[in-house]
């Protein structure tokens, strides 16, 4: 179709980066400017990015994103740049105060959704830009397990909240880059109205497809997803969100 769509339809997360390669300042700026130009609710720009390239700071981030069982995420250290995407009503608060009133939106679920969507769109823009330059990327949601430490380490002020990270780097030469299969298209794109038929059979086939893709006969996608989602996790977030000045009700 065209190069952009081809790139987006064939993308895959990369977790093996050449630790010796840095991004040139021009490349980093191009990615960040693409991310900044993403659509933003009411043009309010309730997002910020902390750019982490320094080895000591990446070491910290590696520690913060290590899973509770001790499994580390070496890609966090080996990437060339780690971008931390933050919901940012700190700037909005300044603006609203200058207009002699106070901020209300940050105390609502709508405010959280607006900020999260702005951050998500900007994250994807950075991803597409980086991949268009032959770089690899992987999003890092594990930052949310260490929200409090991250807020302290990166000096995030009141009315900001870290949501997700993005590793950007040069893929190692032997990195497997096949796109991971998704559920059948009709379960995602519903024509005219929502419809989900024979989902049982769809899942049976998808489990087989993913197991083959992962080259692991034991792998069962539905079991993996269930192991994540049968419980709540990161339940500390509401308290921390309030502590950051979001009086959510
Ligand atoms: C918000 C978000 C958070 C993620 N967090 C992590 C993470 O902490 N560590 C990781 O290795 N991958 C993480 N991923 C990558 C997903 O595992 C990956 O996108 C998914 O398995 C689909 O594979 P693909 O990106 O290769 O298509 C995250 C992805 C998203 C969108």
Largest sheet: 4 strands, antiparallel
CATH class: Alpha Beta
CATH topology: NADH Oxidase
What is the ordering of alpha helices and beta strands?
Answer: HHEHHEHHEHEHHH
**How many strand elements?**
4
Mean pLDDT: 97
Number of helices: 10
Low-confidence stretches: none
Looking at the overall shape, the CATH architecture is 3-Layer(aba) Sandwich
Rg, rounded, reads 20 Å
Protein described:
This protein is α+β, with helices and mostly antiparallel strands and 249 residues long. It is built from ten helices and four strands, in the order H-H-E-H-H-E-H-H-E-H-E-H-H-H. Flavin mononucleotide (FMN) binds next to strand 3.
Q: What is this structure's SSE topology?
A:
Layout (H helix, E strand, L loop, with lengths): L2 H7 L15 H12 L10 E6 L2 H10 L9 H5 L2 E8 L1 H9 L10 H24 L3 E5 L6 H7 L6 E10 L29 H15 L7 H9 L7 H7 L6
Antiparallel strand pairs: 1-2, 2-4, 3-4
Helix pairs in contact: 2-6
The structure holds flavin mononucleotide.
Flavin mononucleotide (FMN) binds next to strand 3.
